[in-house]
Give the backbone structure.
Amino acid sequence: MMNLLRLISGRTASAPVARERLQILLAHERGLRGQPELLGLLRAEILAVVSRHVVLDPEKVIVRMERGKHVSTLEVDIEVPNGFERSLAAAAT
Amino acid sequence: MAKVLVVTSGKGGVGKTTSTAALGAGLAQMGEKVVVVDFDVGLRNLDLVMGAERRVVFDLINVVQGVAKLSQALIRDKRLENLWLLPASQTRDKDALTDEGVGRIIADLRTKFDWILCDSPAGIERGATLAMRYADEAVIVTNPEVSSVRDSDRIIGMLDSKTVKAERGERVEKHVLITRYDSARAARGEMLSIEDILEILATPLLGIIPESQDVLRASNVGSPVTLNNAASAPARAYVDAVRRLMGETVTMIVPVERKGLMNRLLGRRAA
């Protein structure tokens, strides 16, 4: 019946696409739920450790979690200002 | 024992206020003593949909801040004597609501009413979290549309974690209410089906409200859908939902518009 109607109207049903997109998206989002706190914690601790040795702009520390089907990745992106070697050297002495 | 029921959705414009008014009036028609509480501080609309916009003197914020007594802020419905409205403030912002203040008012309302229906604002911020905070039950209003279903899923997650019940290790009883449903479009595969939505949200269904002009017509005149035209398809669907809330088992059907030629002619003339 549905196929017949579709044949007549010449359009393909978009609901199955909606359903599939939602299922994939929500599986991902449900996994992330409760994670913002974890990411915030990781970010704060990473920032504290690195700051002991390098002068950092706290705004330039980005911690991101990507969830994949089999493995997930934790991406830590820290922008270090030029001349940080100097601050390293200073910290060493 | 009084029940606190939040009508929520995450997404805006899906029919929370319409549903709060219709379910509230429906419960009152069954003889229950009901108060509908507008939590949409700054953007109140439940008063308008209930037809009480010109009778608002004090509001929820006034009561939270002790400026007015609860009895001064409650507005009794002119059609149903056991239906009351507690309006939101139009001038203040949602930060004027406090967890403690809302808790106090809900506790007070519990001693006076059988049902306390909290009309949540859209979004997931303070107004929405406080509307659901003290809920025993939740109606998640969902349109058969991807963004609405996604937001409903998010709200379900919050109901399971951010409510007083959840924090005590208990469960808020959740129901999905599908609104603006068009069975013809769903049959053609152009709209998410009921089965799709329920499978994705994994939450029991309270009712299916068909897309209908009667909903707009009712809000135009400031009357809950169930009162404005009790024979209309959405009114019958809301009444079924109310009976399910009361614990009755009612077969799930999507009421359809009666659209015979005679009906149409009579309907026009009657309107």
